[in-house]
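lol forgot to send this yesterday, sorry. struct tokens for the thing we talked abt
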């Protein structure tokens, strides 16, 4: 498993995996605005999405990565909403192809992203927010034993509904005490 930023050249594989997983993913994602262009069906919109992620990287406000198994794209993981100053926090979001779910690729990707966030970017805290009934996503953070901070009511609009989310987090202090264990368990 490897991570790298997506580029416009990834459009074909991204489009294929997203279309293959429409029913699997639409339950957990915000609804697209009716006037918005869908990057799944539009190469230009996907290219603009890649350019936006490049700009976020340049500004230090976000990092997006494709999750690859060999040459095959199997998902994405993102650090977004990076806040500096006294907070030094980022949100982590992820999705994986349903055919690859439950095989440990997403927890592995989350460990790689945590190491990057804490050791390279210099963040203090990461948080992952998950709709409580999304057992697959909850299993990822449970495998890594991330701390659950509680329920945020009507936290995000998901598929047209304001959904409650469980908030999980890890701080750099927790990372420092667990980095060796997490790396041994999840990284080669």
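and heres what i got for the seq, position by position
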């Amino acid at each position: 498993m490897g991570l790298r930023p997506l580029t416009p050249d990834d459009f074909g594989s991204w489009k294929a995996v997203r279309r293959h997983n429409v029913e699997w993913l639409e339950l957990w994602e915000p609804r697209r605005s009716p006037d918005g262009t869908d990057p799944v069906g539009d190469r230009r919109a996907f290219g603009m999405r890649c350019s936006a992620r490049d700009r976020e990287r340049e500004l230090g406000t976000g990092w997006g990565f494709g999750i690859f198994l060999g040459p095959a794209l199997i998902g994405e993981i993102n650090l977004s909403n990076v806040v500096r100053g006294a907070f030094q926090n980022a949100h982590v979001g992820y999705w994986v192809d349903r055919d690859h779910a439950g095989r440990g690729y997403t927890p592995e990707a989350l460990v790689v992203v945590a190491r990057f966030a804490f050791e390279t970017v210099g963040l203090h805290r990461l948080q992952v927010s998950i709709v409580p009934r999304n057992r697959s996503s909850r299993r990822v953070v449970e495998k890594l034993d991330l701390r659950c901070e509680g329920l945020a009511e009507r936290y995000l609009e998901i598929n047209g509904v304001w959904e409650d989310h469980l908030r999980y987090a890890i701080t750099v202090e927790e990372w420092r005490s667990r980095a060796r264990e997490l790396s041994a368990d999840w990284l080669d």
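The chain has six helices and seven strands. anyway ping me if u want another try
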